[in-house]
Design brief:
It contains 6 helices and no strands. By secondary structure, it is mostly helical. The chain is elongated, with a radius of gyration of 20 Å.
Length: 130
């Protein structure tokens, strides 16, 4: 329980931003569909927002294992001394500590995304069929 509270205390801003992004995506969908009056539009918007947040969480998880290190190597490598920059092996060992620190950073995206997907599914099945 203590670890959960510490995690929530450390990542509360990510949860707030994910909730706002989910509402924003739902509003964008409703605006694009031109339909703010039906429950089906809100259901679709919540599902799309949740799916986007869930996929961002999965990309964050894959990135925390170093999947994008090769692409970021060319932009984020540092100079070792005045004559050379670090090679890829040095870069990966330097970034391994950063990846270990942010390993659970994907959880807010996945949790809020799943909640939006559940809300979209629940509202979809609450739509009366005529």
């Amino acid at each position: 329980m203590q670890r959960i509270l510490l995690f929530l205390q450390k990542h509360w801003i990510k949860f707030v931003v994910c909730i706002l992004v989910g509402f924003g995506l739902m509003a964008i969908y409703n605006s694009a569909a031109g339909n703010w009056h039906t429950l089906a539009s809100y259901s679709n918007g919540a599902f799309i927002g949740g799916a986007v947040l869930f996929l961002v969480g999965l990309l964050s998880l894959v990135g925390s294992f170093g999947a994008f290190d090769l692409a970021s190597f060319y932009f984020l490598r540092k100079r070792v001394d005045e004559t050379r920059k670090e090679n890829y092996g040095e870069y990966v060992t330097r970034r391994a500590d950063d990846h270990a620190k942010t390993r659970m950073g994907f959880l807010p995206y996945v949790i809020v995304g799943i909640l939006y997907i559940i809300a979209g599914i629940v509202t979809f099945y609450c739509i009366p069929t005529a």
